[in-house]
Structures are given as C-alpha cells and as structure tokens.
Design brief:
binds pyridoxal-5'-phosphate, Aspartate Aminotransferase, domain 1, 381 residues, 13 helices, 2 domains, single chain
Length: 381
C-alpha cells in the first residue's frame, strides 16, 4: 500500500479539503453579485485582521509580484532604498530595485543571523532613504526578523517607508500593520494561508497611500495602486480579472483563521514550531537560525555528519513526505521543513515518524519513536 503524500516544503503548504472545494466550484462572472460580495468581505476581513486604516490589495499573482507592487508604488527612479537581507529572499529585493533605477544599499547578515538593530539605525541616519525592506521570515535561512522592534526604531525616520515581506510569515507570525509602524506588508496565498499559489496581497498603510498619491503617474500598469483602489472599494468594477476561485479559496482560508482566532493561530504556530525544533534537534539536526530569531513557520535543518542529502530526501519522499533542499551555500547540507498554515497534530507526528524512518533507512543511528515522544511531551505541556 502506498502512503499518503504530505507536501511539507515552505510553500505551497497543505491545502485542506474545504479550501480545495472552493477552488473546484463552477467559475462565475467576476461581476456576479454573490462573488462581488465574497470578494468585498475578504478585503474587509484582511484589512481588519491585519489592522490597517489604509487599504489591502488582493490580486492575481505571486509573492514576487506583491514585492514588485510594494516597491513600484512608493519609490521612483533615483530614490535611495535600504535592503535589509537575512538570506535569498531578502536579496531578491536588490535586483528588483536596481531594475527600477533605485539607488540600492544593502545590509546583509550572515545566514542564520540578523542584522543588528543599531546597524540598521546607523545606516538610516547616513542619508535619506525613500524606503527600507525587511523580510519577516527569510525562507532560505528560517530566520525571523524582529519586525516590531525595527518598526519602533523606524518611527524616528519619517521620510523612510517600512516594507515588510511577509510571504513566509503572514498568518503565522504576529503582524499588526499600523501599530508596528509597517507601511507596506505583502504576502502570497500559498504559505501560511494554506491556499494554492496565485493570490498576491499587499497591505498599504496611510503613509504608503499618501506616497503613491504624491507621485502622479508611475511606469508600472498592472500593479499600480491607483488602478486597484476603485476595485478594492467596489469589486463589482473591472480593472483586470480577479482569480475568482482563488478569491473564494482565500475567503475560506480567512474563515478558518477567524474560527481558530488569529491570536490562537499565532500561539499554535509558536508552540508547534518550538516543539518540532526541539524534537528535530534531538535527532541530531542543527537548526541554522540562531535561537533568538527562529521562525515559527519553518525549520532549516543542517544534517549531522554522514547523511547524504539526495539519499535522505528521496527516501523521505518514498516514505511520503516532501521537503525542500537547502539554498545557496547550504545546498546539499540542509533541508527545509515547513510547519505552517493548516497543518495539525496528525501531520506533525507523521512528519517526525517519517523523518525517523528515513534516517533509519539511510543507515543513521536513530532511536525510533524518540522525536515523536519529545514532540508530544512539549505539546502536552
Ligand atoms: C516564497 C517567498 C517569496 C516569493 O513568493 P512567490 O510566491 O514564490 O513569488 C518571497 N519572499 C519570501 C520570504 C518567500 O518565502
């Protein structure tokens, strides 16, 4: 008999049945009154739950498009921007911003660490930056940036807008847009929302909307806030076709979040992450992210001596669990395990037991059941 397959990469994450059902519905016209009502309800919920007096843009696209939308609407050619990078996705802003003709300064940390707050502050004092980007959770390193503390410090720099990439965080790591001083928060549907890929979300706080207004025309067309503002206010209007079935899927995802309670969802992610991390360390893996800055959405696990990445991950896949490989200098030395979104206790226990089986099969000494025991002890506390 074949095992069920669990996709435990850091996005797309497992999609639960009720969300799949929304994607399987018969597609309606984008002006269908029932659909328009659902789209509006989704927009209102997202604004309310992530606490901004500004606007949220919910459009067809991926996280990368949301990054582009964020930058396009608050900077213009020749502006300076500061990119704070804790890995591969932080670095993605460099090319994106350079192509736009921005003057890009970069603060990079060693992988697994974060750029110290004082270093960021010192850099911000050195010149006027139109914006600064910070990746909340860099998926390549499993590092969570202290976005609240950074937002607090940013209050001293009122000409610099604060962009947070929440693609691997929003819906699992705590984020409150206005209160944390975030001007633009962006994410995609396929990570902690547990929806298939295809929806980009961008929250724009009041200062970001003002910045866009002050800029007249921008070169970009599809991602222009001005094009979408009337649609977000009244989704019966047309600018570009909404991803009808994915909007429904997102609405179901948000319904699940409201049923659980966003605060409970944050607490669950924290508890599960720490329990998983302890259990995996017990098996001999080393976690790349330093303990003070560990994400709750995924773990990046460096292999103990003697394990071949290819053999381990293919054995794991044969046993039914798909994980992601390491990036950059960590390719072949590490794997990445997502534990975010709508995953439950059954999934986590199965994941650990399967990792143990794979270790056993590749000849690594493992006490079967040990990580499951460690995990459940933490969870029952
Ligand atoms: C996945 C990811 C992205 C890119 O999102 P896509 O949907 O693949 O375009 C950007 N930033 C972070 C932090 C991510 O994890």
């Amino acid at each position: 008999m074949k095992n069920k397959r669990l996709v435990m990469i850091p996005g797309p994450t497992p999609v639960v049945r009720s969300i799949q059902d929304e994607m399987g519905r018969e597609t309606v016209a984008f002006g269908d009154p029932a659909f328009v009502k659902d789209y509006k309800a989704l927009i209102n919920d997202l604004k309310e739950m992530w606490e901004t007096k500004g606007e949220v843009f919910v459009i067809a696209g991926t996280g990368t498009l949301a990054m582009e939308m964020a930058i396009a609407n608050i900077t213009k050619k020749g502006d300076s921007i500061l990119v704070v990078s804790h890995g591969y996705f932080g670095d993605r802003f460099i090319d994106l911003c350079e192509r736009k003709g921005l003057e890009v300064d970069v603060l990079q940390s060693e992988w697994g660490q974060t750029v110290p707050l004082q270093t960021i502050e010192k850099q911000l004092k050195s010149k006027i930056y139109a914006a600064m980007t910070v990746t909340h959770v860099d998926t390549s390193t499993g590092v969570a940036a202290p976005i609240e503390a950074i937002g607090e410090m940013m209050k001293k720099f009122d000409q610099t807008l604060y962009v947070v990439d929440g693609v691997c965080a929003t819906g699992a790591e705590v984020e409150r847009v206005d209160e944390m001083g975030i001007d633009v928060l962006l994410t995609g549907s396929q990570k902690a929302f547990g929806v298939a890929p295809g929806i980009a979300m961008v929250w724009a706080g009041p200062r970001a909307l003002e910045r866009r207004q002050s800029m007249d025309s921008i070169p970009e067309f599809y991602v222009d806030f001005e094009k979408w503002l009337p649609i977000m206010a009244d989704p019966s209007k047309y600018f570009a076709t909404p991803a009808v079935n994915l909007v429904w899927a997102m609405k179901e995802s948000v319904r699940i979040m409201k049923e659980e309670g966003l605060e409970n969802r944050y607490a669950r992610h924290l508890k599960v992450a720490r329990a998983m991390q302890k259990a995996l360390e017990g098996l001999g893996f080393t976690i790349l992210a330093n303990p003070e800055n560990r994400a709750v959405t995924l773990s990046n696990l460096i292999y103990p001596e003697g394990i071949d990445d290819g053999a381990f991950r293919s054995t794991l896949a044969e046993e039914g669990i798909i994980v992601a490989g390491g990036l950059g200098a960590y390719a072949g030395k590490m794997f990445r395990l997502g534990h975010m979104g709508n995953v439950d206790m059954h999934d986590m226990v199965a994941v650990l037991a399967t990792i143990e089986r794979a270790l056993y099969k590749v000849g690594y000494p493992v006490k079967l059941g040990s990580s499951v025991g460690t995990f459940m002890e933490s969870m029952l506390k």
